[in-house]
Design goal:
Elements: H1 25-33, E1 70-73, H2 80-97, E2 103-108, H3 114-127, E3 131-137, H4 140-150, E4 154-158, E5 167-174, H5 182-194, E6 207-209, H6 213-221, E7 230-235, H7 241-249, E8 254-259, H8 281-290, E9 294-298, E10 305-308, E11 314-315, H9 317-329, E12 336-340, H10 346-353, E13 357-361, H11 365-375, E14 379-381, E15 387-389, E16 395-396, H12 398-412, H13 416-420, E17 427-428, E18 432-434, H14 439-449, E19 454-456, E20 461-464, E21 468-474, E22 481-487, H15 490-504
Parallel strand pairs: 2-3, 2-4, 3-6, 7-8, 7-9, 12-13, 12-14
Antiparallel strand pairs: 1-5, 4-5, 9-10, 10-11, 14-15, 15-16, 17-22, 18-22, 19-20, 20-21, 21-22
Helix pairs in contact: 2-3, 2-5, 9-10, 9-12
Length: 509
């Protein structure tokens, strides 16, 4: 403020990210004209769309700080100002946890809002004294790889994963690619953001531009040693797989038939969520049309994948968990394998049969990764299509799972459907979602009605009987109850499904 008047943007000095001195408007414009390297990560530019650094107070939607990440609608819940504040809060959190923290990786996906949000986030990190290693437009798992491979102090990926185009957010990990959950950091970052006070570190951080694709490719290819010619339909869903797959598959004996490889964060062809049946219809048709050996669909940030066999039939992600588990146990007998509690009975049965130790875990990448480290497990899989590997910094990778399935098919030399048929011995509902006003009360009601079964509350409620089981849990990201149920016969599955649906929907007596 000057004489009671706010200083307009044109009247105040500017500062390039990572530089300690200020520059004038004319120098700022001149640097933009010649595409000065730091302009692409700077919000302090002289341009019609201005960013008011003097604004310390703004409405903050605290519901964007979720169990596993920070996520909301752009720009109503997350905008550039919020992103800059979050960058400052992340820097403060890292310094609290590790006073020597210095270098943070930042990557972003292809959403239109990701570039401005990443720029704002980077500015918040730099003005708080941290250096930013900007790895550009990448898959989420490449951010975790960069943190683990180069021994950085943490990482932030700007993405909303599989959510629709209007969403965006931040996935955060600390050193060794250890993810933050609400309990281990996101909640604290939320509080710091709410209490935000603009400040600068004694020394501004630098922005370092880095390309990790070459080292990342070498890393993931270590997981596939026996590839032969295979014809594969790949649906990138206009997401990051469209950029990553061509790099990874170059030079491999893999014939890729691409679907929707054009990067487009508006998702013009279908939502980038392969767990929804309607989103893999094109993939299934293309597999049948081209007589491909298999098909695979990735989500928006390419850290999850869903497979279909040579006949275009969807393969459950728990089946893929069992398949990869058996493959890894051939090399490492006695290893521990994680599976999430929604998985088929067939998964622990196959792990034991292959000489492994199955370990059941609650849903969520933060929990799976933490337990993978704690138990020194070699691998873990979730029904959501996340696959976790000990030798990938205990992180998930859709690309490694994809390559391992190709490796298995290359060695077996039989149709995909033949390989997985022994695992499909039970009948499952798949995940069914319900909007429920009082979720806790509904879970209590279910607990009372099924008290005669084997009950546990690891995540929601799981009840097991001799010939069927079910799990009902609250969504961590949406206002929903989720039901998974499996029976030894189709009739048992259908009967249990009707019973649980009536109770959840309030139709039972």
């Amino acid at each position: 403020m000057k004489n009671g008047q706010r200083i307009e943007r044109e009247d105040r000095p500017h500062r390039c990210p990572g530089e300690a001195y200020t520059i004038s408007d004319s120098v700022c414009r001149g640097r933009q004209r010649v595409n000065y390297p730091k302009c692409n990560v700077c919000l302090d530019k002289v341009e019609p769309k201005h960013f008011n650094h003097q604004q310390a107070e703004s409405k903050l939607a605290m519901n964007i700080f979720k169990s596993y990440d920070i996520r909301g609608k752009y720009p109503s819940e997350i905008d550039e100002l919020t992103a800059r504040k979050i960058g400052t809060s992340i820097a403060q959190f890292f310094k609290e946890e590790n006073p020597k923290a210095k270098n943070i990786v930042v990557g972003r996906d292809m959403r239109p809002s990701s570039k401005p949000l990443a720029s704002a986030l980077i500015e918040g990190l730099c003005t708080s004294g941290l250096n930013v290693v900007n790895i550009g437009v990448v898959a989420t798992e490449m951010t975790s790889f960069a943190v683990g491979n180069y021994h950085y102090d943490g990482g932030v990926m700007v993405t909303a994963s599989h959510n629709p185009a209007q969403y965006n957010g931040f996935k955060i990990c600390r050193e060794q690619a250890i993810p933050l959950s609400f309990e281990t950091g996101i909640g604290r970052i939320g509080k710091l953001t709410k209490q935000y006070h603009p400040s600068r570190g004694e020394q501004l951080g630098k922005v370092i531009i880095s390309d990790v694709f070459s080292d990342y490719k070498k890393h993931v290819l270590k997981f596939a040693s026996n590839l032969r010619h295979l014809r594969v339909v790949i649906d990138a869903g206009n997401g990051m797989a469209g950029k990553v797959i061509p790099v990874i598959c170059e030079g491999l004996p893999i014939e890729v038939i691409p679907l929707y490889f054009e990067l487009d964060g508006n998702f013009p062809n279908h939502e980038a969520n392969p767990l929804k049946a309607e989103n893999i219809v094109d993939l299934q048709s293309k597999v049948r049309e081209t007589r491909a050996h298999l098909g695979v669909a990735f989500d928006g940030d390419a850290d999850r994948c869903v497979f279909v066999d040579e006949m275009g039939r969807a393969i459950g992600c728990d089946t893929v968990t069992a398949l990869i588990s058996k493959h890894l146990l051939e090399r490492e007998k006695g290893a521990t394998i994680l599976y999430d509690l929604r998985s088929s009975w067939a998964v622990p049965e196959e792990i034991r049969a292959a000489g492994g130790v199955p370990y059941r875990e609650r849903v969520g990448h933060a929990y799976m990764k933490a337990t993978l480290r704690e138990k020194k497990a070699v691998f873990g899989g979730e029904l959501s299509g996340h696959y976790y590997f000990r030798d990938n910094y205990c992180s998930d990778s859709g690309m490694i799972a994809f390559l391992m399935v190709l490796d298995i098919l290359s060695a077996k030399r039989v149709p995909f459907s033949n390989i997985i048929s022994p695992f499909k011995r039970y009948y499952a509902t798949g995940e069914i979602n319900f909007e429920v006003e009082d979720k806790d009360a509904k879970i209590e009601e279910i607990t009372r009605k099924f008290s005669n079964g084997k009950v546990d509350h690891l995540d929601g409620i799981t009840v097991e009987y001799n010939d069927w089981w079910f799990n009902v849990r609250k969504s961590n990201t949406e206002p929903l109850l989720r039901l998974n149920l499996e029976g030894k016969t189709k009739e048992l599955m259908e009967k249990g499904k009707r019973l649980l649906m009536d109770i959840i929907q309030g139709k039972s007596a």
